[in-house]
Amino acid sequence: MDRILVTGGAGFIGSNFVHHVVANTDAHVTVLDKLTYAATQESLDGLPADRVELVVGDIAEPEVVEPLVAGVDAVVHYAAESHNDNSLEDPGPFIRTNIVGSFTLLEAARKHDKRFHHVSTDEVYGDLELDDPKRFTEDTPYNPSSPYSASKAGSDHLVRAWVRSFGVRATISNCSNNYGPWQHIEKFIPRQITEVIDGRRPRVYGDGLNVRDWIHTEDHSSAVLAILERGQIGETYLIGADGEKNNLEVVQAILRHFGRSADDIEFVRDRAGHDRRYAIESGKLRHQLDWQPQYQDFDAGLQATIDWYVANEAWWRPHKDAVEASYAAKGQ
Ligand code: NAD
Ligand code: TDX
């Protein structure tokens, strides 16, 4: 694959993938990104100009998408509205970008017969009970809870239909919760790190016992590249790194890092429809594509992420007041 189009490549996970592709392949990357509030162009700084180009545009506009898709060998589709809490306030942009945008890209991939990889989430499967021994597998029935996860589930179904009905050469991956540098401070881990830096208490929804299955974004990128290069057309692969932690455990690790008391926590209003637990069984990816996560020590990865937010305050500081004002207005 000489030329790859990465949608959402200026976002948290997409930008990590662009760095990963440049470091591990010879491919040229075109990033298509609308540069919404969630994007950081700076995350692409330092990449060689002859390897990476940024096109600012909307994936839901066929006249933007079509010529770009026509000019590459493969599309890796990250662009999305990605935050559950925002989808509860205003679902419209989630439907447009995640469903209409994915449809627009699929139509272009169909017309020009291009390899397509769709990046999705484990949230399409709904949630598990805390004491359920089961984890999500590729065969778990879809059961999304929020407008965000329903829009991602909708896009997954479109991809499957375009494979079956039109022969589009597509794969899908459903990954668990990512952490690492460049994640927007509206999300759980960076929000709590920056709250503690500001001398405030971490803000935990409900009873804090909700479980997320954390994976470092670098491991997500290596898995997506493995699927792009070696995945079987029409197949879905779950991506996870056995990183189950409840939210209290995560904030307590952050508090420990800053020498603060482990019970210095503010319990706030719960999220509507809050999924209880996600857990990924990633055996298919590991066995069939010989993939392994590199960041198996969550505490070490979290420490490095905390250090990154301490060192990169200039990036997140301008957004902090507005993010907190918006949460405060919801009692969170
Ligand atoms: P993000 O919000 O940080 O980045 C999304 C990017 O998409 C931004 O750069 C934004 O400008 C761009 N974008 C949004 N709408 C667009 C549009 N209409 N046209 C073009 N670009 C647009 O999101 P993220 O956390 O990096 O997530 C990336 C992908 O990975 C999403 O598809 C998400 O569903 C999926 N995913 C995320 C996680 C996670 O933990 N964050 C886990 C599993 C899967
Ligand atoms: O302030 C907070 N307090 C809190 O307790 C925030 C922002 C979140 N939470 C809880 C809600 C969740 O149980 O922390 C957990 C993680 O929350 P988010 O960071 O909002 O992530 P989540 O809703 O789990 O979704 C994430 O993982 C799956 C990504 O945002 C999605 O894009 C991805 O698909």
Q: What general outline do the C-alpha atoms trace? A: globular
The CATH superfamily of the domain at 3-178 and 216-239 is identified as NAD(P)-binding Rossmann-like Domain
Ions and ligands: nicotinamide-adenine-dinucleotide, thymidine-5'-diphospho-beta-D-xylose
List the total number of helices.
11
Taken as a percent bin, the fraction of beta residues is 15-25%
**Main β-sheet, spatial strand arrangement:** 3-2-1-4-5-6-11
Description:
With 332 residues, the chain is an alpha/beta fold. It has a domain at 3-178 and 216-239: NAD(P)-binding Rossmann-like Domain (Rossmann fold, 3-Layer(aba) Sandwich), CATH 3.40.50. The protein has helices at 12-24, 62-70, 84-89, 92-112, 147-166, 188-197, 217-230, 247-257, 283-289, 298-311, 313-329, and strands at residues 3-7, 28-33, 52-56, 74-77, 115-121, 170-175, 178-179, 203-205, 211-213, 215-216, 236-239, 244-246, 266-268. It has a seven-stranded parallel beta sheet, sandwiched between helices. A two-stranded parallel sheet has the order 7-10. Strand 1, helix 1 and strand 2 form a beta-alpha-beta unit. The longest helix is centred in the first third of the chain and has 21 residues, at 92-112. Bound molecules: nicotinamide-adenine-dinucleotide (NAD) and thymidine-5'-diphospho-beta-D-xylose. Thymidine-5'-diphospho-beta-D-xylose is lined by residues 82-84, 121, 123, 177, 187-188, 191, 203-205, 210, 212, 247, 271. Nicotinamide-adenine-dinucleotide binds next to helix 1, strand 2, helix 4 and strand 5.
